[in-house]
Amino acid sequence: MAKAKPKILPLWEDSNPALNTLESQNSVFQEVLGQKPLQQIVESLTIPLEQYPALCGIDEAGRGCVAGSLFVCGVVLNNPPQALLNQLKDSKTLSQKTRDSLAKEIKQYAHFHLVQKSAQVIDVHGLSVCLRDSLLEIMTHLSAPFYCFDGPCNFGIQTLKTLIKGDSKLHAISAASILAKSAKDSEMQTLHTQFPQYDFAHNKGYCTKAHLNAIAQNGLCTIHRKTYHLKALSQTPTLFESH
User: Fold this and answer.
1) Nearest in space to 177 (alpha carbons), one of 86, 79, 67, 102
2) Residues with Cβ < 8 Å from 40, sequence gap 6 or more?
């Protein structure tokens, strides 16, 4: 008995009834994205070409930080204009101003779900568990036939596909990368006003030389990840340690 194909719903509600089917919306995406490069990407992921537009792209920001939250974002694009697609690329190659501007535009053409895991939660559960839980939450909240995460590891989630450097290969992952990084930047800007001595507005929570010097001088604060076993951190008391 042949296996029944999963039912895939249209990606958006359109005022034109002719565009309220998955097939018609797929044709719009194929026309916008161009079939030849799209075919190559889809084949590398073993995803049927006709189901590509419903793909959910996922990326994170803050994984390598020693301060602040981890943000993981999933995005399903909804008929974005070509002008927007042309600007979608790895968020790390964009200025903060450009990222924030694109993030606002992306939200107009996407279903998205953003997960935030605080430094305290990361310390309790560990980074890998937080990443896995975030991925599962996104897959629960966003309906898609395929989910693709930027990087080589699916964290044991068999239904999650992975793509190395996906943020520079798939528009949905690029969009997720931009939303996650924009959220991380916003958080660190806010934390900078609370803890100006660490200059979070510039280092974004990453382990720069200036950041380590600030930790050596001031100790760790409440939003540093205490379980990160960096030599420079392990020998430094917290701001709230009794002396």
Assistant:
1) 102
2) none
3-state secondary structure 61-81: ECCCCCECCEEEEEEEECCCC
- Provide the CATH topology of domain 23-187: Nucleotidyltransferase; domain 5 (3.30.420)
Tens-digit pLDDT profile for residues 136-168 = 999 999 999 889 999 999 999 988 999 988 888
Which residues, at least 6 apart from 44, have a Cβ–Cβ distance to it below 8 Å? 163
Starting at the earlier edge strand, list the strands of the sheet with 56-61.
110-117, 70-77, 56-61, 147-150, 160-163
**The tokens 């993981």 sit on which residue?**
72
In this prediction, residue 93 carries a pLDDT of 85
The tens digit of pLDDT for each residue in 15-67 reads 555 544 545 545 544 444 444 455 666 667 777 665 677 789 999 999 999 99
Calpha distance 239→227 (Å, rounded) = 16
For range 173-196, the mean pLDDT: 97
For the chain, give every domain's residue range: 23-187, 192-234
What number of other Cβ atoms are within 10 A of residue 120's Cβ? 13
Backbone dihedral region of 180: left (phi > 0), alpha (psi from -120 to 50 degrees) or beta?
Answer: alpha
Please, where are the H alpha helices in the chain?
22-33, 35-45, 82-85, 96-106, 119-125, 127-141, 171-194, 200-203, 209-218, 231-234
